[in-house]
Amino acid sequence: MKRILVTGALGQIGSELVLKLRKLYGADNVIATDIRKNDTEIVHSGPFELLDVTDADAMYQIAKKNQVDTIIHLAALLSATAESKPLIAWNLNMGGLVNALEVARELKCQFFTPSSIGAFGPTTPKDHTPQDTIQRPTTMYGVNKVAGELLCDYYYHKFGVDTRGLRFPGLISYMTPPGGGTTDYAVEIYYEALRSGKYTSYIAKGTYMDMMYMPDALNAIVALMEADPAKLKHRNSFNVTAMSFEPEEIAAEIRKHLPHFQLDYDVDPVRQAIADSWPNSIDATAAKEEWGFKAEYDLQKMTEDMLARLEQKIS
Ligand code: AKB
Description:
Radius of gyration: 19 Å
Strand order of the largest sheet: 3-2-1-4-5-7-11
CATH architecture of the largest domain: 3-Layer(aba) Sandwich
Structural class: alpha/beta
Helix content: 40-55%
Number of helices: 12
Bound molecules: 2-amino-3-ketobutyric acid
Distance between the termini: 39 Å
Number of domains: 2
CATH topology of the largest domain: Rossmann fold
CATH superfamily of the largest domain: NAD(P)-binding Rossmann-like Domain
């Protein structure tokens, strides 16, 4: 049975992943940690500890005390926030990662951390972006993600830490909103469609980015962590995606359910520049071949589910 430490457990991924892992591996075997505490199921349904991931000793003590054998390191600043606070992003995203890798090395833990489509840049091929390609991002977040991928490779080759990772696209979910990302518009649009029937997008018409519905992202994490290590040729993060769309396409899908939904634009130059530097659509062949990645939700199926779930939540 696994004993899993999750950092950043109250964030967009963590708040759903912890519940899934507790169902799979037992509530007491998943130790959720975050720099803050709130009154959610994550905090009450199993062990929870306050943890600032830049505090290496605190992370080690929590991992050791709980005898963990797996670390899922999620705590990080997303792209737009990292761009407005680059030094804080460097310290948190890189400092937290190296601390978590060190704990994994010392306690011989399996290790997962997400990378992102943000690990690509303007000179990367934009369409069907390959697994192994040019990675020269122009954002602090991207610099962190590429350095993070290399660091995970390094810990695998140098120390034998069983590191695994996914390059996530924008993740869409109804439980916990993302914060400070470039792809967040694709979550906000559903909330606003239900609340006010209209949405002003900070991302311009015609801007394609990869996206994935949270259930597919969670299944991908579990499948990759369970995958036979002998089959993994890549230790840097795997490209994974479920769909690629631009604002007009998601609006058209929403109008199938809410015909009067209106979309207009007030483009934010910072987030638009980040989006423009990212691929239009990435190629997930390596993930499919090496550990059987598959996604269940396309734009149509996700929109049906998102609107139904959010309607229940908001009403
Ligand atoms: C962001 O927009 O920063 C994230 C990501 C794609 O990594 N959602």
